Each structure stands twice: as C-alpha cells, then as structure tokens.
C-alpha cells in the first residue's frame, strides 16, 4: 500500500470523526436548550408563586383590599409596602417577558404566565402603581403592558 492511499484513508476517517462530533454536539446543544427552557419555566413559576404568596398574609391582604376600594384610604407606610410588592410582581413579569422575547420560554408557557400577570392590570391599585413606576422598566415590556386591555379582576 502506498502513502497516498494511507493518507486518503486517514483523511476519510478524520472527516467521518468530524461529522460524528458535529452530530453529537448538535444533540447536546438541543438537550441543553430544552433544559434551559425548562429551567426558565420553573424559575418564572417559582417567582410568581413567591410574589403572590405575600398577598396571603392577613396584613397584606387587608392593605390590598383597602387600597382597591380607595387608594387614599391606606397610610403612606402601607402604600410603600404595596408599591414594593407590586414592583416585585411587575419585575417578575418583566423577567418572564424578557425570557420569552429572548427565546428562553416556550410560547405556550409565556401565554399561560402572561394571563396570570395580565389579570393584575384589572386591579385598580396595581394600575395606579404601574403608572407611578412604569418608567423603571424595559421599553418593550412597558409598551407591552400599556397595550393590554384591562380585565376585570374579581374577588368573588
């Protein structure tokens, strides 16, 4: 066997190894993307649960109900607490929006999360706080929220 034939066989084996490596890499990237999307979903869901769980405290529930009857009926300290809570809620919503925009959330997951968040804009105190603080958010997110049709938020 001559050296040219051995060289050709070596090149063929090398090319095959490169193709196999690229296929393996593609499979690994696909699996990593799937895992990344799943992680984003779990994180977005956890953040939503954590933020909304604060409303379950009796004190916060009372502030929330009174603020929605008349925002002026709550004290300045209560207003600060509600603003912080709503700001955390909006920030979590913005994070989900950005994750979706950047392709890290599946579209159906974004739609489901967004329905939960969108209902908050039917709450008078949240609309009020949004209007006070919306300049602090990403331009695209702000445009998205401002374009939403407010829904009625029913307690009963």
Explain this structure.
With 156 residues, the chain is mostly helical. 78% of the residues lie in helices and 0% in strands. It is built from six helices and no strands. Helix 2 crosses helix 3, helix 3 runs antiparallel to helix 4 and helix 3 crosses helix 5. The protein is rod-shaped, with a radius of gyration of 25 Å. 18% of the residues are buried.
Question: What layout of secondary structure does this protein have?
Answer:
Blueprint: H1 3-53, H2 58-69, H3 76-101, H4 107-119, H5 124-133, H6 139-147
Helix pairs in contact: 1-3, 2-3, 3-4, 3-5
Amount of helix: over 70%
Task: Tell me the distance between the termini.
Answer: 87 Å
Residues in β-strands, percent = under 5%
Contiguous low-pLDDT stretches (5 residues minimum) are none
Radius of gyration, CA atoms, in whole angstroms: 25 Å
Mean residue pLDDT: 83
Note the total helix count.
6
- How would you describe the oligomerization state of the chains in this entry? single chain
So what's the overall shape? rod-shaped
Main pleated-sheet profile? none
The tally of beta strands, per DSSP, is 0
What is the H/E order?
HHHHHH
- From the helix content, strand content and strand pairing, which structural class follows? mainly alpha
What are the salient characteristics of this protein?
single chain, 156 residues, mainly alpha, 6 helices, 78% helix
Summarize the structure.
By secondary structure, the protein is an all-alpha fold. It contains six helices and no strands.
